[in-house]
Amino acid sequence: MEQRNMDRKIKVGSISAGLALVALPLGGWVPALLAAGAGYLIGDKQFPKGEKPWRDIQELLNEKEHGRLEFKETLSEDSKRKSPYDGLVKTIVAFANSDGGEIILGVADNSTVVGIETLIKRERNKDKFELALRSAIRSNIDGAVDRLYRIKFERVDDKEVLRIEIEKSAKHVFTNQRGDFYIRDGNATRSLTTKEYNNFKTDDE
Questions:
Q1: SS3 state at 48
Q2: What does pTM read for this prediction?
Q3: Measured between alpha carbons, how far is 160 from 129 in angstroms, rounded to an integer?
Q4: Staple 16 to which of 2, 39, 116, 178, CB 3.0 to 4.6 Å?
Q5: For 73-181, where are the E strands, in sequence order?
Q6: Which residues does 200 contact at the CB level (< 8 Å), separation at least 6?
Q7: Are 182 and 97 in contact (CB under 8 A)?
């Protein structure tokens, strides 16, 4: 973590100093200082501060499923679903509309690690699997969802799992196709009726 923060400071500082050096011979110290400040703002945006650390995965596996933690053994294989990512999308929406949480793909309900090697192989490699997953999330959830979640591959018991951490959204999040609204109800994901949503919306205001 310390090394990552140091690398970030060096990169931001380089942008700031570079702009100052360009401005100095053109206009003197005042423009140079202004350029340095602008360079810092540009660098700060280009290289944001390090993300908060992920929780230890063994601790999560020991917790079992609850309101902010969901295990998924695999993607949905139900032929009635339009996409194998539907179940995952609904859970992401539910976490975003509740208190946030984490999904661990490749873990059974009883906390047994089964891995996602088959899913990765289906897309050829991890990079393509992640791209397919992000594309499915983006196309099936209404709103700017990219800023609400982050993804991490991790090996547990010599098996690959995928972690998806979701933040609570400041605005209500819906699925794209049908405009469904989901929340977490204990350790389950539940769709709200129109009446339930109106009550939820009132309580949330």
A1: coil
A2: 0.73
A3: 12
A4: 39
A5: 101-105, 149-156, 159-166
A6: 181, 183, 192
A7: yes
